[in-house]
Structure formats: structure tokens, C-alpha cells
Amino acid sequence: MHASSSYHAYLIESLKDPVEAAAYLDAVLEDGEIEPMLLALKNVAAARRGLGENSDSFEASWETYYQTFSCGEVPDIRLISNLLHELGLKLSITVRDEQAA
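The structure corresponding to this sequence follows.
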């Protein structure tokens, strides 16, 4: 197996854990770049699809998310929030380290 495909398989497997998925997204979002964020969301969605009670409803709405990401559209905050919610995650705001007292 090619090294990058084995890493990708490992990444997808690790992102099945919601704590790992949240840490991964948090790290990617820290950079503030849109393309890596969209790729990270795709990876988490790929890992988390089909896990859990609402998998049928997620599968039904996944096509909308996938089309948005695939067409190069930048999803709005509502779409990202809905996707995260369906993945068992949520958005949050924190104080930057240098601003913390």
C-alpha cells in the first residue's frame, strides 16, 4: 500500500473518535485557511458517516454537503454548523492564548 494512502486510511480511522475529530478540526481551523478547513471537514465527514443513530438522515443530507465542497463553494457558517451538529460536534469560540489573563 502506498504510504500516503495508508496514512489517509489511518487518519480516517482515527477520526471516527469524536474527541480526535474535534482536535483535528480545531488544529486545522487555527490556521484560518479555507481550503485545509474544507478538506478537514470532508475527512471528518468521511470517517463519521454511518456511525450512530442518525446515520440515515446524515446520508440523505450528505449529498448537499458534498456538492458544496466539491463545487469549490465556500459554505456559510450555518452549513458548517449543521454539518458539525450532524457529526456530533459543535462550533465554539475561545480566547486566544495571548489574550488569556
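Residues 55-70 form the longest helix (16 residues).
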